[in-house]
Amino acid sequence: MTELLLEARAAQKYFPVQKGLLFAKTVGHIKAVDGVSFSIEEGKTFGLVGESGCGKTTMAKCILLLEKLTSGQVFVGGRDISKLNGEQLKQYRGMVQAVFQDPYSSLSPRMRVRDIVAEPVVVNRRLSRKELKERVTEVMGVVGLHEEMGNRYPHEFSGGQRQRVAVARALSLSPKLMVLDEPISALDVSIRAQIMNLLRQLQAQYSLSYLLIAHDLAVVRHMSDQVGVMYLGKIVEYADSNELYAKTLHPYTKALVSAAMPSEPGVRRDEIVLSGEVPSPLNPPPGCRFHPRCPFAMPKCSEGEPALVEAFPGHKVACFLHSDKVAQPEATTVSSNGKKPS
Ligand code: SF4
Question: What string of DSSP letters covers 217-266?
Answer without folding.
Answer: HHHHHHH-SEEEEEETTEEEEEEEHHHHHHT--SHHHHHHHHHSPPSSTT
